[in-house]
Amino acid sequence: MNSKSILIAGTFMALLASCGNQNEKTKENEIKTLPVYVVTARDTIVEVPYVADIQANRNVEVHSRTEGLLEKIYIKEGQHVNKGQLLFKINDSELQIELSKATAAYNSAKADAKVAQVEAERVQTLVDKKVITKTELDLARAKYNAALAKAEVALSEKNAVSKRISYTSIHSPFTGVVDRLPLKEGSLVAPNSLLTTLSDIHTIYAYFNISENEYLQLAGNDTHDYNLDAIKLVLPNGNSYPFSGKLSSAESEIDENTGNIAYKVQFDNPRGILRHGASGKILITRSFPKAILIPQKAVFEIQDKNYVFLVNNEGVVKMTGVAVSQRIADNYLVLSGLKANDRIVLEGIQSIRDGQKIQVRQ
Fold first, then answer.
1. What's domain 48-57+202-287's superfamily in CATH?
2. CA distance to 42, 299, 316, 335, 350, per residue, from 311 (Å)
3. CA atoms within 13 A on the CB side of 353
4. Which residues of 220-231 are buried (b: 16+ CB within 10 A; e: fewer)?
5. Per-10-residue mean pLDDT for the chain, 362 residues long?
6. First to last CA, the chain
């Protein structure tokens, strides 16, 4: 290729590069037409959800307090029982034999004490008549007191056996629902063996955690924003529990690991629908006066922070940080960063950059 050809080729490439740069600049300077959203402030009522752990008013394990064969089970799993109702019977035949022996020993000790008492009274009479010395009376009284002490020991042993016999009949400590029965009739029961679990479910508590910030709002002057006397419970199947609950109390400490504190909501459970260990979702109604809601699609995230493109009167966009509270349907509840009548880019936020000018489409 001669020098003239090289010159022509170089000139052609330069022209191509110049055209390419002009096309890129034209594309960059092209004003996009994008829809915007005008921010409004209006009173809003929101149902704030919390995951809840449902627990019975009382849930206790029923254990045996003595050993023996499980002679009789008077209940079935899942049965409703009343306070004082007989649940289990442990065979007490050996204890009855011990009771007979202890009773006999006690009666014998009482008889010995009676004999010692009569002897002491006889000696007292002789001392009064000065037939014998007072030393004999002291000895008789000492024998009587010793006999009384032996009788008291025998009575304690008899009562102890009677108490052990009473442990062979296990009654319900309160009205509730019986859980599983791990042992069957004829099983050998050891002291402290688990017989069943009993749940008092006429009242149910739904425990849930809230953040320290929410706790301070509840504990401060912001409780008027919350409806704490008609709290809803959503069951795992998506249905709403037919009775509303009331906020009951909180734990005394904030978890240093999570920064949360546990609250509980009390629900009446007249139909026995709720059971201990179930799960659900608490819905607490909260009002937000003059709340700002913006579409979720107008928000983008950078390094765990939320931003929108704010549009000024000249159509220039500015990347603006916003603090959002929660998602409501397809919207975000904005706590700070925007005010009423602000305009933000609604769609196409991925195709623009900070400081770019756009054509507004309402």
1. Efflux pump adaptor protein, beta barrel domain (2.40.30.170)
2. 21, 14, 6, 19, 15
3. 3
4. eeeeeebbbeeb
5. 47 49 52 91 86 94 95 95 97 95 96 94 89 89 95 96 96 95 95 95 92 75 68 93 87 81 92 91 87 92 92 93 85 91 93 90 76
6. 60
Domain boundaries, the chain: 30-44+290-361, 48-57+202-287, 92-167
* CA dist 315 → 30, 40, 59, 295, 347 (Å): 13, 19, 64, 20, 15
Question: Which one is the CATH code of 92-167: 3.40.20.10, 1.10.287.470, 2.10.220.10, 3.40.190.10?
Answer: 1.10.287.470
pTM above 0.70, yes or no: no
Query: In terms of CATH architecture, what is 30-44+290-361?
Result: Beta Barrel (2.40)
How many CB atoms are located within 10 Å of the residue 332 CB?
A: 23
- The pLDDT of residue 110: 95
